[in-house]
Amino acid sequence: xxxxxxxxxxxxxxxxxxxxxxxxxxxxxxxxxxxxxxxxxxxxxxxxxxxxxxxxxxxxxxxxxxxxxxxxxxxxxxxxxxxxxxxxxxxxxxxxxxxxxxxxxxxxx
Length: 109
Known about the structure:
Blueprint: H1 3-12, E1 21-25, E2 28-33, E3 36-41, E4 47-50, H2 56-60, E5 65-70, E6 73-81, H3 89-103
Antiparallel strand pairs: 1-2, 2-3, 3-4, 4-6, 5-6
């Protein structure tokens, strides 16, 4: 983990639903709901958000977002949110709610 990842995780924890599992991933911390990634921090401090694929274009239209990249591969169903687009708890809560609405529709792993 990095200082940027840890700083974002500290901001996220009080806003997340209770009982989520935490898992090291992407150089940061993934927060898992029923075994599915809800959100994650990255080594550079981005927030990774699980998105309903049908709502991907709307998510990408928001400021500071991009498609999640794993090496040269683009990951569908995930967006990366730049730290500058997360100025306050309200911004984090909005992304958490977006992710949670979709992840709750997925079967547990």
